[in-house]
Automatic annotation (TrEMBL):
This is Calcium/sodium antiporter. Keywords: Membrane, Transmembrane, Transmembrane helix. The keyword Transferase does not apply. One of its GO terms (biological process) is intracellular calcium ion homeostasis.
């Protein structure tokens, strides 16, 4: 058991590191080819933040553990909102001023409703997987289009430009992309194998292991990035990373079991976890979406998120 725990921790560390290097290389490569920082931020960086979840979900599905894949998708979204944004807002209230984010929030709510509907019968079909991955491509294209239409005074522009690597030689950028593409699936394989072993040892279901230890592990980079972002005054970027990650988690991560291992799922995913994800997404929408101007996710609201996360964890294991 100790060996499996060590393998899990090493796999998690390598997964996070390789995802970071992949995003670094892909962003630098796109910048060298003249792609605007805003487009890089809304597409490559946002998609890259979900890269660990996508690879883990695909690996779990290939290994015949679709419930782990579904749990990873739902659990990551729950953790991103309740724990990551909650802790970040407790450290420093998040000022929501970007009109770009206010356009993305309704998209997040819409795709969350799609996910709840698709999971309502505790069955994920190939058709539903195809619909989700098609929506993923459409949303990605929409975000690329949005990068051309964004207001030049949008604070997200300056925050994004500060995060895009500069003066990285193309050879170095390509090297990091290749390293990321090789190490991501390799580390995900060992991560999933060890996580399933640990779950079986303690009598925990595949769904719960995806909802908890894997989801928490793959969300740690978002927590670190969000805390670092708000400390530098990049509130919109910190929130944008979470919103983009959650959109891609539903459309790309949840699509994997539908495409690779369609079939019946643990009933708790539809009756419990999907509604927790929906409730937290609605709460985020209420806290952020203010037509009258800027809005803060204050410490009180951050505390609500963290308490909701703790209550959910208790519910899972009670």
């Amino acid at each position: 058991m100790l060996i499996q725990i060590v393998i899990f921790l090493i796999g998690l560390a390598v997964l996070s590191w390789s995802a970071d290097k992949f995003v670094y290389g892909a962003s630098a490569l796109a910048k060298n080819f003249g792609v605007s920082p805003m487009m890089i931020g809304l597409t490559i960086v946002a998609m890259g933040s979900s890269a660990p979840e996508i690879v883990v979900s695909a690996t779990a599905s290939i290994n015949g553990n679709p419930n782990t894949a579904v749990g990873n998708a739902l659990g990551s979204n729950i953790t991103n909102i309740a724990l990551v944004l909650g802790i970040t807002a407790l450290i420093k209230p998040l000022l929501v001023s970007s009109t770009t984010l206010k356009r993305e929030l309704p998209v997040l709510l819409l795709v969350t409703l799609f996910a709840v509907y698709f999971l309502s019968d505790s069955y994920l079909s190939p058709v539903e997987g195809i619909i989700l991955i098609t929506m993923f491509v459409i949303v990605l294209g929409g975000m690329a289009w949005l990068s051309f239409k964004v207001d030049k005074n949008d604070p997200l522009i300056a925050e994004t430009e500060d995060e895009i690597p500069n003066n990285v030689p193309t050879v170095n950028a390509v090297t990091w992309v290749i390293v990321g593409l090789v190490m991501l699936p390799l580390s995900a394989h060992f991560l999933v194998e060890s996580a399933v072993f640990i779950a079986r040892h303690f009598g925990v279901s595949d769904l719960v292991i995806g909802l908890t230890i894997i989801a928490l592990g793959t969300s740690l980079p978002e927590l670190a990035a969000s805390i670092a972002g708000v400390r530098k005054g990049e509130d919109d970027l910190a929130l944008g990373n979470i919103i983009g990650s959650n959109i891609f988690n539903i459309l790309a991560v949840l699509a994997m079991p539908g495409l690779i291992a369609p079939g019946l799922l643990d009933a708790d995913a539809s009756s419990r976890d999907s509604y927790v994800m929906l409730g937290l997404t609605i709460l985020l929408f209420v806290f952020c979406f203010n037509l009258r101007g800027t809005r803060q996710i204050n410490r009180y609201e951050g505390g609500i998120f963290v308490l909701a996360f703790l209550a959910y964890q208790y519910w899972l294991f009670a």
